[in-house]
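Let us work through a complete example step by step.
Step 1: write down the sequence.
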Amino acid sequence: MIIAHLNGVELNYEVHGNAGPWVALMPGGRRGLDEIRSLAQRIAAAGYRVLTQDRRNCGASEVSIDGRGAEHEIWADDLHALLKSLDALPAYVGGCSSGCRLSIDFALRYPQAVRGLLLWRVTGGAFAVKRLCEKYFGEYLRAAKAGGMPAVAETEHFRELIAARPQNRDKLLAINPQTFIAAMSAWETSFRAGVDQPVIGASEAQLKSITAPACIVPGNDKTHPAAAADTLARLMPNATLHPLMGPDVDLDVDPPANWDAREADLAAILIAGLARMRS
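Step 2: predict the structure and record it as C-alpha cells.
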C-alpha cells in the first residue's frame, strides 16, 4: 500500500511498470483499485507505467464527503494532483463507467495534462441516471436520515471502506449527519443533470471541445448502452469506436464475469489505441 497526502485526503495507489509513458486507469462505481489491477498489469507489460488508485471514498483511501462540485470532478482534481506529484504529466487517462466520467472531466479541466483517453462502458440515458442516483446516493441519504452516521457506517459500501482502512470509521462518525445529507443531496442533484446530457457528466459542447485522441469501447447493458458510446464517439472530434461485447443485453448491468472473460481482448484494444495515439 502506497499512500499520498493530497488535496486534504490520504489516497492509496499503485504503479505497475517501471518505464514508458504514463497511463492512469480508474475502475467503475466506487470500487477500489483491485478491480482494475489485472488490466493495468496487462497494459504495463506492453511498455507503460500504469497508475491505479483508490479514489476518495473508495477502497483503502480516506473518507471525505463535503458536497462541493460533482463527485467525478473532485476525483479528477485528485488524480491530477497525484499524477503531478509523480511527475507523470501529461498522461493517458482512462476508465470504466464512473472512471470514464472522471477521465472525460479530467480532459475538460486539464486539457494540457492529457495525451489521450481510454474510455469503456460509457454511461448515459435516463435509466442509468435513475439507477445510479439510487445506488450512489439514495441508499446513504435514507440511512443518514433514519439512523445518522452509525447507520451510514453499516451500509455495505462504508463497511468495506472501514474494513480496508479502519480509520475511516472515526472519520465517518465525526461527520455531522446534516452535513452528510446536504453533501450527498448536492452530488445527487449534480448527477441528475446527466439525464439531459449526451453522456452523464458532460454536455454536447464540452464533448466537442475535447481535442485529445480517444479510444472508446461501448458497454452493452441498460446502464452502459452502446448508444451512449456511439454518441460520445460522434461528438468527440478525435475519437474512434471499438465494439467488443456485441448487442446490448436486457440487464441493468452485464455481470462483471462476462467482462472479466474478455479482459485480454479489452487490453488488446486499449494497447492498440495507445499505439495509435503515440504514432
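Step 3: interpret the result. The chain has a mean pLDDT of 96.
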